[in-house]
């Protein structure tokens, strides 16, 4: 697998997101950052919100060149070698020569008319 999931964030990063969205909260006259308050008061809600946020902001990175993509398949296909005859991407460099030798677009494999 060549794609790397770049959407995971730390608890501290999620707290910062919540703080930016909701600011501070007041409890019994005391002021707290909303991210910290939610984390301390309801860890399950904190974790569920973080997971939902990650799912909604999913980014994938090509493991070879570092380009970012919206979906895993595009990141997987990014740096795969490509057949010079048909343009099809193959899984790895070892299977490229086999594919090119057997490719129906290869002039050697085309039957005379």
List the helices and strands and how they pair.
Elements: E1 3-5, H1 11-22, E2 24-27, E3 30-33, H2 34-41, H3 43-56, E4 60-62, E5 68-69, H4 72-77, H5 95-102
Antiparallel strand pairs: 1-4, 2-3, 4-5
Key features of this structure:
three-stranded antiparallel sheet, single chain, 2 domains, 113 residues, alpha+beta, 5 helices, 14% strand
As a whole number of angstroms, the C-alpha radius of gyration is 24 Å
| Major pleated sheet | 3 strands, antiparallel
Order of helices and strands: EHEEHHEEHH
Number of domains: 2
Mean pLDDT, all residues: 81
What separation lies between the terminal Cα atoms? 42 Å
Share of residues in helices: 40-55%
Shape label: rod-shaped
Spatial order of the strands forming the largest sheet: 1-4-5
Q: Strand tally, please?
A: 5
Q: What is the SS-derived class?
A: alpha+beta
Low-confidence runs: none
The share of residues in extended strands comes to 5-15%
What's the helix count? 5
Written overview of the protein:
This protein is of the alpha+beta class. It has two domains: 3-78, no CATH class; 80-113, no CATH class. Helices cover 42% and strands 14% of the residues. The chain has helices at residues 11-22, 34-41, 43-56, 72-77, 95-102; strands spanning 3-5, 24-27, 30-33, 60-62, 68-69. It has a three-stranded antiparallel sheet with strand order 1-4-5. Strands 2-3 form a two-stranded antiparallel sheet. Strand 4 (60-62) and strand 5 form a beta hairpin. Helix 1 crosses helix 2 and helix 2 (34-41) packs across helix 3. It is rod-shaped and about 85 Å long. The model has no long low-confidence stretch (mean pLDDT 81).
